[in-house]
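Checklist before submission:
- one chain only
- standard amino acids only
- sequence pasted in full

Submission:
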Amino acid sequence: MQHWQSATTRKNTQEPQKPSSPRPDQLRALVLDYLYHKSYISTARSFVRESAIQHFDSDSDGDVLMCNPSDDKGSPTPESRDVLAETLEERLAVAQRRREIRTSILSGRIDEAASLLKEYFPAVLSDEQDVDVLSEHPASAQKMNYIPSTATDPATVALNLRIQAFIEASRTIPLPYASSSKPSAGNASLHRAFPMESRTSAPRDSKAEPGNRHLDLLHRAQGLYSEVQCLPSPSDRVAFLRELSEVTAILAYIEPERSSLAPYFTFERRESVADLVDAAILYRLHQLSISKIELVARNTSAIWSSLHDLDIKPPPMSKWPNGVNLPPLGDEPSTGAGKSSERTSSTSAKGSCSEKQTNEPVPYFDLTRYLNAKA
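Returned file contents:
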């Protein structure tokens, strides 16, 4: 029977130390990383501004609030430098470009998205190397490796975009996308390059010159098959040929949105392509394709799930390191509030574990249940 091996069971070991709590600057960097990955630009600016460390001038007659204390020469002191704020606009400029590309894909404007990729992130669609790579913030310098589950090879990313462009050209029923973002002054060139009439997600009129439209779709389909044959990976060629056999069946329907191929015309399909492209952008920038907080949650869930599946039993409570608790037990969300509910959940978890430690493996980690227990 397998059991946890506590540090206290080893010879000449010290008392387990309480796990160190994250510093405020680390938590601040973690939240900003999430906002950056989601391209919440306005929220990120507000968060960095409102969460900045406030200092007080103790030399004046009264306490004077200063955001960035400086030395005699007017330069910020080392301890008062806000590195997150100093590098914020550089990071948000990348987030803004990523959001423009994502909005184009979600709106069905695939050719526009491809043009923006070639302008902003050429390495995503070709073998060129991006030279503008953002460095990690010192507070989050400890790396956690993550391999994206979606394609990052330029050829496969480009092919996925071409397939989506074929689907959008085949669309007969509009699928509008209401973006909450408003055009900014920095996007003036984008709107000049793509006039408003070409920035709609409405499809071509299927009743106007149907012969020419069908011929155009046939040429597109032939081009897709040619691109698939050029893929270097045999497994990729097989996978894409299988997908093309389904996608090109769209040509057999007058209104494919009402056929068995309707899932290709959903908003979820656009979202999956947008997610794939965004992950490829971040990968080419040598950044994680998901936020660090999501990566930590996945890692925690995987560890506890593996322990449970291996039937690992927790040790006696007396051997638990200080500050360590098991994930919340039971399917019911916590009904308490604040610290009281947290103490109740932790106590019940420890008590339950103490009573059943020889019979029950450690529980799974469920993020929703964990957050409910902390609420």
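Reviewer check: The chain has a mean pLDDT of 77.
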